Structure formats: structure tokens, C-alpha cells
Amino acid sequence: MLADCMDKYKNDFAIKFAKIMQQQLDIWKDVQNSNRLSLLSLQSFGFYFFIAALGMVPGKNEHNYNLKFHLILAAVCFVGAVIANIHSTNKIYQDTIKATLFPELLKIFGNLQYRSSSSLTSKLNASSIILDDETDNAASLARKTTDNNIIYDIKSSVFQNSQLYDKKITERTDDDAFYGTYNDVALTMVETDFGWNAKDRYRTYHRMFKGLAMRFKINKKIKSRVLILTKFSMTKIPKGFEKVELESVKFNKKYNVWVDSQSAKGEGQIEARYLLNTAFLERLMQIQTSFRVHQMCCSIFGNSMLVMLHTRKDLFEMNHLFGRIDDTTQYRHLFNEFASVLSFIDVLNLSSKTKL
Fold this sequence. Notes:
Layout: H1 2-38, H2 42-54, H3 67-105, E1 111-115, E2 143-144, E3 150-151, H4 156-161, E4 171-182, E5 185-197, E6 205-230, E7 241-244, H5 249-254, E8 255-260, H6 268-275, H7 278-290, E9 295-310, H8 332-348
């Protein structure tokens, strides 16, 4: 049943994607060619030679100038500048393609919308999509950008209140984000990178998380705080939490489950086992597999579920600047990522008030 559900979404995505590609292919090719040519522009070559020239500059303590060494260093600097420009240009190219693809692609799955990192006007102060009944004021749930479009995001306070992180977030940057409702379930997905600064001379940055954060609204209150962590996770378990042993041997090999023993009048173990049924566990593992990440953590409390997928790679990526746009095999990972999230909602029936 789970495999059939995933296949259904993959097929729906593939069909819709093919239609959009047919409409946009000529435009996408023009965008790709113009970005490729920009790598050979006078401005780009000026950048390459400027960086290469730095390799010819003698060092502060260099007494005997070694011309051969500096020529090699200049060549390395030149190549590095070319690679850096390709990486930057590829990012611009992919963002342009995604801006024309995702809004249309998501229409087949209800009220889901896409927001690129370039559309952000605020990173730390962006609001959450009607999920913040823990600490957030309802008046602050929706803030508007300069173009009067409402931004929905996961507030930094949500990450801190999840009890997955024991430091206050002081720096955060976001990339791609998806938000809206599907099957009457509010959900938000955002690629984010956040951490804290030490109070030392250099305000040293310590990363807490980089990857994809996903938040789902559960239309049923969970009295206990449940934490799900992959084995060997670096997350510090808060005081008062006790381990939950589940019947799924496959799940127990990969994850540890903890529940707040002080909540739900001491019935946290019972509530956790009820919540983490077979369908829930299988679909949660499928999300981690589809996004090809090694670490995942999850916090469930009240009417929301926060899933954190740790990865340093970019997700929801399109074809490379030097790849063939019409080669659909390179988009399979994209179909898998979206299908796993939507089938997670579909299979678990999170929109139901009577069951998970």
C-alpha cells in the first residue's frame, strides 16, 4: 500500500512536470544558454584574472620571490575563480527555473506554494503557518513583504521550543521553502541553516542545524512531548525524558524514541506507542530515505510535528547548468522528495481528528 501511494504521487508529478516542460522548454534553454555565455563575458574574465593576479603577490615574509611557485599559485587561483563563478551562476540558473516550475507543479496538490530564498525580506522574524499555538501570538502569525504577499515560515522559537536544541539561535539563513495546505493539513518545509555565536572575541559561529525543516499540523492534541532521533544523534536528551521501546525491530535499529515522563499524567509511554503505529514509522523512514540524509530528528507536541533532516547538500535541486534540461532521469530525486512528504500525510491521514 505504501509503495502504491508513493508511485501514485511520482506518476502525478511526472505527468505534470512533462506538461510544464513542454510549455517552458524553449524559455529554459534560453535561460541556460545566456547563463553559460555569462561565464565567458568580459566581466567574468576580469574576475578570473583579478583572482589569478592575487597569486602573483609576494607573501609578507617572502624574502626570495619564487616565480615558478607564484605562476602555479596564480593558475590555481584562476581555476578556483572559474569554479566559483560556475557554482554561483548555476545557483542563479536553477533558481530561475524553479521559479517557473514549482508554482505550477504544486497546483495539482492543493493550496501549496513555493518561495525562493531571493523573495525573503526577513530571515529570523518570518512567521509560521498557523502552527504556533505554543508561544506565538496570533497577531504575529502573518507578516507581509513589500509586495503584500504573506510569508509563511517556521519561526526560530519553534526550533528552540522543540527541545531538540539547547542553545538560543542567533544566526539563521533560509533557502527554498514550500508552504500551504494539503488534505486540510497545514505544512511548511524550509531549507534552513542556523546556529549560535559564542561570546568570545571573534563571536565564533557554531552550527546547530543545516538541512530541511518540515512542520505538519496535527488536528489532534498530543499531551506528551515525543522525540525521535536517529542512532548516535548529537542531540542532548532533556531531563525528565525516558526511552520508549517499540515493537518494530527495523525502526529500533535506526532510531531512539524518548518521551517526557512528566507529561500526560505519567501516560507518556502509552501515548507514544499509540502515536507511533506501524504506518507512521514506515512513512517516517521513507522520508529519510527519499531525501537521502543520514540524520533525522523529530519533535511531536501539542498539535504539531517538527521533522528535521540534517544534510549539507542542497535539496529540491534542478538540472545542472551544463546538463540536458529535457533529460527527465535527473529529476527523479525531486519526485521522490515531494512524493514522500505528500504520501506521509496521505497514508497517516493526519487530517483526521480521530486517528493518526
